[in-house]
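Example A, followed by Example B.
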Amino acid sequence: MRPGGPLETWFAEVRDRIANDWDACIADVGYTGVGKSTLAWRLGEELDPGFNQSHMCLSQQEVEAALKVAQRGDVVVVDEGVEVVYSLDFATRESKDFVRWLDVCRRRGVILIVNMARLRQMSGRVRDDRALFAVSVRRRGRAILYRRVGADPMGLDEEDPGGRWKKVCRFSFGRVEGPEWDAYMARKDDRVMNYDPKKEREEKRARGRRTRRTEP
């Protein structure tokens, strides 16, 4: 990613949001294998000097562990791991956990990047109220940055409460190489190869029961 121009202006805007106690939720969309993880890593490097593979999360547990130790200005990526790629739960629930993560991000000043195939996989409540930016990976090494404009989070505009997406710029990004990237890809491959849907459903039900017990 070349410095300067509208992309650098956007980086400054994201950092400014964090400095002023706002969250920054970035949707990273594109089909499987097109390079979303690579782009998320590149964005993480640009926005967070301490970014490494521990910031790339493949499960709910990994996201929550990363947020517990995250500092102001850190980037945390929810990648297309087992719980996102293979489960409709992420897409069809009211995304209570996701809203909670965003609340933690705002309090701690953390930038959250969420990888998904399509923007509509994000619940309407979160997409319309909290996701202000989106990057669309059309092919490897090429992406388009969008900004949501005209949004009405109070819901007063019944015809268009979520606003519309305006293209900011096109940009290119390079490959990621090195031991940190290799370690992350090995961890991701291991999650995919050892995915157990039955175990995953049981763990989700157990987490749901624990959440209900702790809710007032």
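Example B, a separate protein, is given below in the same form.
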Amino acid sequence: MGISDYKAKKIMNRLTHSTKPTKEKQINRNWHLIDVSDKILGRIAPQIVRIVSGKNKTDYVPNLDIGDHVVVTNASKVRVTGKKTLSKEYTNYSGYPGGLKKINFADLIKKDSREIIKRAVSGMLPKNKFRSDRLNRIHVFPNAEHTFANKLIK
């Protein structure tokens, strides 16, 4: 005696609809430590974006922000390839005539090395309602010392 086709379809429908959507209460945010000393900026920034946006998790859904916190250390020791140390420029525009300010990579790393990581990750994040929250979960430190040692995953 075999199962009728009607019962088999009913069982298959139940099996295929068993994945439950992620709820906001179920979001569990972990803490990750990334040491960027002597690492290339363009290679490490996508890894940070992946963790912050939650795409490394199995329960990722694009309509919820399920990303983790990222602690980035040794930002002052990050590298770029080629001649970008002198040729890569970061610009700020105030909106007023003559208000365009430019600074190259070498000068910005001396002035504020945290800004380099923040700008690289910010440019790779999607421009949507989750962007500012995701950027707030990136904690960048110029040296190896940081204040989140008790929150990191062991």
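On Example B: The longest strand covers residues 31-35.
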